[in-house]
């Protein structure tokens, strides 16, 4: 604590500090000498390629990938062509640019993912230099070839190569060049001798940095800041020029008095920087040049490599790693010697309080008198976020917490979120994880990206812990982790299908939002169809299962799943698919095992393919439905003979179905049809197709009593119904005598009130009265009332 | 316009507005003037969502009915087909489009599938070679349509037939989807109860779909406490009985379609002085019936025998209100009176309409035929002579009364006797075939398949046990001031509603035995709510149950549920949902099969 300021160096009004991030876990024999190094920003992984230009096949160069803390992730001998440049993409993939212009992409674990070429012409002319850059469009690559031409690709995910125009007068590669992203355009800035050129899609324009002395000499090094807003140039006379990258303003001009070209030159800024600087590194010296032209010098003892960050510069060598940054203003306020800033007083107050000293009260009073307690708390919280050492963080947070107690209506959201974020940051900074993120970087890259990066590194448990700890909704947090984990799991070749499926199921369980079909598709891509099927079993959305199953030619399973879903359209889709794929016999057999699908297909056939319907019933020995089918068909026949033969089919099937009633009814219908046809032929009665009752009715109205009588007997018509029929028919035709005779033929099964009422209905009171005497006593009143 | 939807405990207007929004969005996708070609079946249900004015606002200039051949000419930029996803309709559309192309080439075609698009249909359009002609192909998810303040219907007429005759559960899939939509708008329903195979199937699909959507947790405070899913085949009896509530009778006699009824015009003739009576209107009078009409809301659920009294009471109130004008002395009083006039006049015309309707209904209910038929129904329901051939039915067949009437009665007898003796059944069937024609063999087969008609298999008739346990018959039903749901059928308490009532109190455990006698499983499921969404119930606050009738519900059943909601000590409010509003006649009709005759 007391030594917070020990590592501070003044630069102008501000201070710079060098924080030790890690003692590197790696042990590299020759240090970083003779190696191609690529370290991703935001504390990303480091790739090393030893002796990249060694061509002898007997001893191939070794490609090694480490975490930022130097833990080996993978290493393998480089078997492809000579590599010119290494770089990292935004999604932690390693890009290896070869001499012949091909770019090989590996994941963090060294497995080859894909490759592409920077153009055919490059194979001949060869890549002289390449740069990987990041812009809002993603990860880009720029190369300059032996024929002095530049080629750009702004996004490797959506590869579009752009060959930039020729640069007049350029031989080989320029002395120095950078890629600039300005106004949504990607350009190259390059130097030839003392001249500076901007090369864009259409032209190459000479430009002049304002205030650069014409005698400064040739520009031999240049660099742009993290945000592409600032540019620095170094000339062979030792002049440093720094300013806005749009070349509108000069910020620094400084004579380093060193004529050899620095190995690396980087901007060191931070958001709301008070004193931005340019960091230059030579073999033995690290020089920080501020805007105020003040400098700090650090000796370099070991071969080092600089990584530009949003808020500083990381310095990596074979034994350790440091972060060089401007001390944030709020930290300066608190820790500066003799600072009277509210935060500093609060920290002091708390320190005294812990010692149980009454001085605590004095400090607190002072703060309260100035009415700045809230500010003090905020300062402590903010400073804690910027401190790397957990002990310092703690003392600041405790001070803030202490100060909070004396405030009413203090909104502690910021306090709480900072606490949480610091815990997360401390966890990922652990050497075993190795992501030395500052709070500023973390805020810039967002939690989502941090989790993504943990996933790329396969730190699944940690990622889940973080998601749970920060209470991220499951579908954005834990489930995303699980999905990634499972997709990775299914690619583990050494495990059996069962083991993987079980493992996935145990972990993923029914976590909502984890798509099993996505995982299964991954497994299928890796050629593990059986595993894919096992996994699909867990997928709740059948809509997702079915297409993949069909693709994998598991039609039966697809059908089962479609049926399970209840989505009939999905079932229809599979059925149609099966119908086209299988022969008819197999198709029917398949349907037979799936009653739901079979019923749906029947529905379809009823509307579309009547013939198929018959085959289906036939196959199932469904005699009842088959008979019904024949009945339906019989009505469509125009000729009586065909109609009868269809009905005969129906009779046969009804018999097979042991439906005696229907068989008999159908036989009777056939008999009736024949009878009707006969009478139609003989008398033109127009009976065909009428019901038995209507037939008798018609016969009676035509006066064909004998024939009606015959039907009545043949078809065993109940007496009651026949009597009603005859009564009504005779009354309607006003054959009263005939009616009377009929009434006396035997005892009426329908009683005699019916006779009275029917006569009245046809307005014959006289006839009606004849029957009153025969009406039963209970109905007599009703009969008399009817007659009136 | 749809204010009556928001009066209830659950604001169903939210659902209607959501549906309207989707419709507008689709219409706006097809820029420029439009003509809609309607699948005729859809016009009714759509009327409940959007009137023509809404369509007009979105440049719909013409409307046609979908039929084969050439489309009528219309000077519009877009032709939009609103159709159900059915293959036969696709063929018509294909024909329309093919004959169209040669005439105009500048018209854009679109299809809106209701309620869901279908790969099968799209494939058919592709096979017909017209798929490419459509600029937009979309689905309009219209599963549950708000019908009234407490009533949702899918207006899916064939649901019962499809489920029980054809083993086609498409309607259940739509039901489950509809319930998911409902839950998205009104919160997850924590408790699900159900009885019947279809209910089980729907609940399974819902739980499954919930897993599919999971992750996107529903953060809406649940409006419904309970969902009760009931299969129509658990209670086949109720729809067969003649409904005796006012609304039920209107539906039985004239049929209510999508909330509208068509009535014989004579009684509604406006008799103005000096006008000859020869100008009697010949067009049927079309009236919309819903709770937006105050008087109708008041009387529709009453037993018809209590409607007369209610109407005359209302008449007195209205004329008293008009008399008020004599008391209005000051300018202020007159002004106030005048301001109430429109409301009073509306009330008066509403009263006039319902008096006319009541007269029409009364003509029927006082007829001897109605009385006789009702007597037989009540005998069956009380278990009198259900095991032998009924003379009244025999006579009706002999008189060739409408077949559906016969079928309703025979089915009722069968249901009340847990099946008929083979001899009795065959006798009825033979009578029907001989009288109405052999072609009805298929219909009879369907009724048997649906369980409405069946031979007695088990030795015991369990209907009396069910009737007694659930108190399905109440001797002294009070029609004027009811104290039990049995008033809706003047004595018979609908089984389905008794199940609902018992579920609320004391719970189904008390009737395990009876539940086992009824077809299909009964079950209970719970849906986990995110913490923080558990309702903190106020003292005396009612619980809300959504009762979903799979396969249809009658107006009398709805009336019974409304009665339960209004009972002071029930502590339960019911919202009703169904696949379709039915009565015995419309229901049996969907189960009939008529082979098309091509014979000369």
From TrEMBL, chain A:
<dbReference type="GO" id="GO:0016197">
    <property type="term" value="P:endosomal transport"/>
</dbReference>
<dbReference type="Pfam" id="PF04840">
    <property type="entry name" value="Vps16_C"/>
</dbReference>
<dbReference type="GO" id="GO:0006886">
    <property type="term" value="P:intracellular protein transport"/>
</dbReference>
<dbReference type="GO" id="GO:0061074">
    <property type="term" value="P:regulation of neural retina development"/>
</dbReference>
<dbReference type="GO" id="GO:0042144">
    <property type="term" value="P:vacuole fusion, non-autophagic"/>
</dbReference>
<dbReference type="InterPro" id="IPR006926">
    <property type="entry name" value="Vps16_N"/>
</dbReference>
<comment type="function">
    <text>Plays a role in vesicle-mediated protein trafficking to lysosomal compartments including the endocytic membrane transport and autophagic pathways. Believed to act as a core component of the putative HOPS and CORVET endosomal tethering complexes.</text>
</comment>
<keyword id="KW-0813">Transport</keyword>
<keyword id="KW-0967">Endosome</keyword>
<dbReference type="InterPro" id="IPR016534">
    <property type="entry name" value="VPS16"/>
</dbReference>
<dbReference type="GO" id="GO:0030897">
    <property type="term" value="C:HOPS complex"/>
</dbReference>
<keyword id="KW-0653">Protein transport</keyword>
<keyword id="KW-0472">Membrane</keyword>
<dbReference type="GO" id="GO:0033263">
    <property type="term" value="C:CORVET complex"/>
</dbReference>
<dbReference type="GO" id="GO:0031902">
    <property type="term" value="C:late endosome membrane"/>
</dbReference>
<dbReference type="GO" id="GO:0003779">
    <property type="term" value="F:actin binding"/>
</dbReference>
<comment type="similarity">
    <text>Belongs to the VPS16 family.</text>
</comment>
<keyword id="KW-0458">Lysosome</keyword>
<keyword id="KW-0175">Coiled coil</keyword>
<dbReference type="GO" id="GO:0031641">
    <property type="term" value="P:regulation of myelination"/>
</dbReference>
<dbReference type="InterPro" id="IPR038132">
    <property type="entry name" value="Vps16_C_sf"/>
</dbReference>
<dbReference type="InterPro" id="IPR006925">
    <property type="entry name" value="Vps16_C"/>
</dbReference>
Automatic annotation (TrEMBL), chain B:
<dbReference type="GO" id="GO:0005769">
    <property type="term" value="C:early endosome"/>
</dbReference>
<dbReference type="GO" id="GO:0030136">
    <property type="term" value="C:clathrin-coated vesicle"/>
</dbReference>
<dbReference type="InterPro" id="IPR036045">
    <property type="entry name" value="Sec1-like_sf"/>
</dbReference>
<comment type="function">
    <text>Plays a role in vesicle-mediated protein trafficking to lysosomal compartments including the endocytic membrane transport and autophagic pathways. Believed to act as a core component of the putative HOPS and CORVET endosomal tethering complexes which are proposed to be involved in the Rab5-to-Rab7 endosome conversion probably implicating MON1A/B, and via binding SNAREs and SNARE complexes to mediate tethering and docking events during SNARE-mediated membrane fusion.</text>
</comment>
<protein>
    <recommendedName>
        <fullName>Vacuolar protein sorting-associated protein 33A</fullName>
    </recommendedName>
</protein>
<dbReference type="InterPro" id="IPR027482">
    <property type="entry name" value="Sec1-like_dom2"/>
</dbReference>
<dbReference type="InterPro" id="IPR001619">
    <property type="entry name" value="Sec1-like"/>
</dbReference>
<keyword id="KW-0653">Protein transport</keyword>
<dbReference type="Pfam" id="PF00995">
    <property type="entry name" value="Sec1"/>
</dbReference>
<dbReference type="GO" id="GO:0005765">
    <property type="term" value="C:lysosomal membrane"/>
</dbReference>
<dbReference type="InterPro" id="IPR043154">
    <property type="entry name" value="Sec-1-like_dom1"/>
</dbReference>
<dbReference type="GO" id="GO:0016192">
    <property type="term" value="P:vesicle-mediated transport"/>
</dbReference>
<keyword id="KW-0458">Lysosome</keyword>
<dbReference type="InterPro" id="IPR043155">
    <property type="entry name" value="VPS33_dom3b"/>
</dbReference>
<dbReference type="GO" id="GO:0031902">
    <property type="term" value="C:late endosome membrane"/>
</dbReference>
<dbReference type="InterPro" id="IPR043127">
    <property type="entry name" value="Sec-1-like_dom3a"/>
</dbReference>
<keyword id="KW-0967">Endosome</keyword>
<dbReference type="GO" id="GO:0005776">
    <property type="term" value="C:autophagosome"/>
</dbReference>
<dbReference type="GO" id="GO:0015031">
    <property type="term" value="P:protein transport"/>
</dbReference>
<comment type="similarity">
    <text>Belongs to the STXBP/unc-18/SEC1 family.</text>
</comment>
<keyword id="KW-0472">Membrane</keyword>
<keyword id="KW-0968">Cytoplasmic vesicle</keyword>
